[in-house]
Amino acid sequence: MTDRIEAAAAELRPLLQEFILWARENAPGSDSGLVGSVALWHRLIASDDAGRWRTADLRAVLLDRMPQVVEDPEAAAEGIVPAVRSYLTFLSDTDRLAKGSSPLRDLLTELDRIEDDVVDAMEDAVSDDDYDDEDDDQVEGLGDFEPFADELAALPTIRLRPDSELAAAARASVLIGKARDLAVWVGTARRVGEENLLTDAEIAEAVAALGFPPPAADGGPLADSVPALWNVWNLAIDLDFLQPEGEDTVSADPDAAEWPFDDDDDVLDAWLTGLHSIDYGDPELDDEEATIALSGLTRALLLRVLLAGGSKSLADLRSELAEAAAEYDDLGAEAWAAATKRYGDPLNPVLDWLCGYGMVEVEHEHVRLTPLGTEGLVHLVDEEDIELDARPAIDAMTALDLLAFSAELPEEEADAEFDAWMELREPGQAAGELLRAAAEDDADALVRVQAASVVGSLGEAAVPAWREALDEPSLRPYAATHLAQLGVDDVPAPTQADTHWLILDMLTISAGLGRPEFVGSLDDIGPASTLIPLLDVIWKVRHPHLEELLEAIAKAHPDRQVGKAAKRALFKARSHEN
User: Fold this and answer.
1) Which of 45, 78, 147, 234 is most buried (CB neighbours < 10 A)?
2) How confident is the model over 530-548, as pLDDT tens digits?
3) pTM
4) How many C-beta atoms lie closer than 10 Å to residue 179's C-beta?
């Protein structure tokens, strides 16, 4: 079912984009998300034609299906009927209400008749606690990642390349280049048709502009013989290279011609925006049900290559995916045979699209994920809320990356990351990079403590970096302390304020671990007789977390006298600041 949903959603996307534009002027406030869901399920369960609506469809979709699938029943109770009313009006006003539909007047009357029932059904769904059982009953699809969640979580750490390298690879994407060429060809305010977006003459021009072979005339509509053109058209829309400008015109975005962009961030943003175009690589067959049976094949291939460590033989992929297609859909084996007849190999269109988007390379009968493909897969898996251990490559990891990632790792694993990173640098260089990274945010005590700990282990080689850190207020206490321990004479000795800063950093970290750990850290400092004098002076330190720590001490410490001292210190700190 998931694969069929994906195929139907792709089919409906242009229509829904036009509804959104229409609604801005004619039905502002209409919930396009609800409209999209209703249109999708209408297409799946009620009509092969998205524009053919009968009064009976409203009850089947809004009462029988939507309460089961809508993500926010409470919002749907309020907005779904007005949204559908706007959508049906849009279909009628734009002549998209197909032959065989009930008159708009009858559809709207039926909507009014069932509105209370729809609201009741949505409200019942809000209080329904049986969502887990419904999820268990869902049928897995060929392109689903969830069945492989455990295998994905068990993969070794996936190393990601730096943005500069990924952007360079994205700039070389053949398909994005074709989407740009198509947008440039479309130009400004090109009229489009209802049945076929372009005339036969325009199709021939567009195909030539993209460098595709001329379409073969087979007696049918020319638009049906150029699926590759429409895939690029949809990609151009996904990338915002093409934008609808009303009911019957489309224009190129002014920035489209500038691809490939100069800024790496802009390039990667565009590439990721078009990432879901991988679904256009799925085989397209004459029979719609067969096409749906192989929907998700591109994702399934990517997933299996990732699970194989980034490379897998074509023969193994072909065998596994043929078996999976037959398992996930009753028509899977038949669809696989039809795709073999049409393409020679059902994986040919999949690999053509993935190679064109820069995600895989095929060499010596093996499919290999590119760094760009690995990056894209990590994003797709993350969208499914599936655990995956992905980090920057060691040679591409900045000091700040290292400190941030290591803060989330077990100690032994964090030490291994540091060791691997340090092997690529001279100790003095590493010390400088780590301390400069730690100085970027004076509110991040954990990163600061980590950096100081690692640099402190480098001994004499770190002296120049420590000297430089004396000029950074947040690092001065660490620098002064370590330089004194190293016996460096011509530097200022640590002050009481430096010691107090170190205490506040330690308390900041323990406060983030929870109340028991925080109270334990206070106990480590000493009894009330030690804490109260400390609180009487520590309020003078300009630490970014001073006030919140004093508030936390006042609330958490079991000794009332310590709590009172913390409140006095907080008052003084605030008064001094003001």
Assistant:
1) 234
2) 999 999 999 999 999 999 9
3) 0.67
4) 28
